[in-house]
Amino acid sequence: MGELLSGAQILCRVLVEEGVDTIWGYPGGAIMPFYHALPDFPEIRHILVRHEQAAAHAADGYARASGRIGVCVATSGPGATNLVTGLATAQMDSSPVVAITGQVPRAMLGRDAFQETDVVGITLPITKHSCLVADVTELADRMREAIAIAREGRPGPVVIDVPKDVQNQKTEYEGSGVGDQVSGRTRPPTPGPRRPAPRTTFKRIRVRLRAQASTSLATAQLGARSRETSSTRQIISI
User: Fold this and answer.
1) Which of 111-115, 157-161, 173-177 has the lowest mean pLDDT?
2) Which one, of 38, 19, 179, 158, lies nearest residue 91 by Cα?
3) Residue 183 lies in a domain
4) How many percent of the chain have pLDDT more than 70?
5) 217 and 132 share one domain
6) Residues 166 and 202 in one domain
7) Same domain for 132 and 203?
8) pLDDT tens readout for residues 131-140
C-alpha cells in the first residue's frame, strides 16, 4: 500500500526523485497548495523571483549551464502567461525546462473564473508538450512524463497545469521506478554538470576564427582594389 500524499506533495516528491534541487517561482492563489507543501521537502531550494518571466528565464539559463532540468513555478492567469517569453526562448534554443502552473479548481474551468486562462492552449505552439492534469491519481505519472519529454530527443520546455483542488486532493503514492512512458525505457539518470571544454580547444577555435577573419579581410580588400582598377580603366578609355 502506497503512502497517502496530496497532489502538491506528489509534485514535490517527484521533483526530488528526479534529482531537481533548485526551482524558481512566484506564489499566487492557485499554486499556494504547492508552496504550502514545499517546506516539507528541504531537498528543494526555492528562489523567489520578482516576476514570473524571470523564473522562466532563470530555469532556462540553469538548464543551459548545468545540463539539468530547469523548473519554474507560477500561479494561474497572468502568472502563467508571464512565463511565455521564457518558454518560447527555451523552445527555440532546446533547453529542458518544466513549468508547473496552478489553475483554478476544476468546477470553475470554462466559466471565466478569476484568473482563469487557457494556459495549455496558449503554450502548445511554443512548447514540446503541455497538459492539464484533472485527476490526482495520474499526477505522479504525468509529472514524470513531463520531465522525460523535456529531456528526451531534442530538449525543450514542457508545461504541466494543475488545478488547485487537484493539488489539495490526496491519493496513494507509488514511488519512482515507473518506466518512461514516452519511450518505454527506464528514466535516464539526471545528467551532471557539463564539463567545460579544454583551453586548448578554445585556442584552436580562436586561431581558426582569426585565420578566417584574415582571409575574409584579404578577399574584401582584393575586391575593392579590383573595382578601383576597373573604374580607372573605364576613365582612361573615355
Assistant:
1) 173-177
2) 158
3) no
4) 76
5) no
6) no
7) no
8) 999 999 999 9
Q: Residues 126, 210: one domain? A: no
User: d(Cα 151, Cα 145) in Å, to the nearest integer?
Assistant: 10
Residue 175 has pLDDT above 50, yes or no: yes
Domain that holds residue 121: 3-173
Is residue 190 domain-resident?
no
Q: What is the CATH number of the domain that holds 104?
A: 3.40.50.970
In-domain check, residue 185: no
Instruction: Round the average pLDDT of the chain to a whole number and report it.
Output: 85
pLDDT-derived band at 198, boundaries 50, 70, 90: very low
User: In this structure, are 31 and 126 located in the same domain?
Assistant: yes
Instruction: Give a three-class secondary structure readout of the chain.
Output: CCEEEEHHHHHHHHHHHCCCCEEEECCCHHHHHHHHHHHHCCCCEEEECCCHHHHHHHHHHHHHHHCCCEEEEECCCHHHHCCHHHHHHHHHCCCCEEEEEEECCHHHCCCCCCCCCCHHHHHHHHCCEEEECCCHHHHHHHHHHHHHHHHCCCCCEEEEEEEHHHHHCEEEECCCCCCCCCCCCCCCCCCCCCCCCCHHHHHHHHHHHHHHHHHHHHHHHHHHHHHHHHHHHHHHHC
Tell me the whole-structure pTM to 2 decimals.
Answer: 0.74
